[in-house]
Amino acid sequence: MPAAGQWRRAAVAIAITVALVGLLVLWRPSGLYPWLKAAHVIAIIAWMAGMLYLPRLFVYHCDAEPGSKQSETFKIMERRLLTVIINPAMVASWVLGLWLAWDGGWYAAPWLQTKVALVLLLSALHGLFARWVRLFAADRNPHPQKFYRIINEVPTILLIGIVILAVVKPF
Ligand code: HEM
Fold it and tell me: Which of the residues 95, 116, 135, 148 has the least number of beta carbons within 10 Å of its own beta carbon?
């Protein structure tokens, strides 16, 4: 359970973010769109870096004896990667992506609707990763190493589809 201080810091960070986003929405400076897009791409790079690395950690973690020093180190790496990088980057990717869709009037575009469907799959996978981090932390990993080797490829396949839809906009 996070300590009271951590909750307070999280609440302050959320309040500052909401206030800044509110200010930008009300103010709407001209030339904001490309900056939003740059921030969106930065957030996506951070999200994807984590989504590609975390299943690799699961693969190596399978080789570590439960209770060993190595296993405990993997638990810390997995938890930090999830909470410090992957979770905030996913929230930022969604907020900025939806903002771009609204600001650019892309809502009805079929490429965007297909892209959002793929991003929903990516987000569901993110949820599964979070569940496996918790199970590894309790030494209750439910899957063999081969399973994580296969799962490791899924974010890459989704990434390729999403980027082609966003950049090429084929329909
Ligand atoms: C979370 C839901 C998301 C929404 C609603 C969304 C929406 C958008 C919108 C509206 C644009 C602007 C398109 C333009 O101005 O041409 C954009 C750009 C982009 N998005 Fe997303 N996006 C999301 C997530 C993602 C994810 C997960 C990725 C990659 C894995 C991604 C990759 C990109 C890229 C590379 C661009 C730049 C395209 C360009 O400038 O040609 N997006 N996104």
Answer: 135
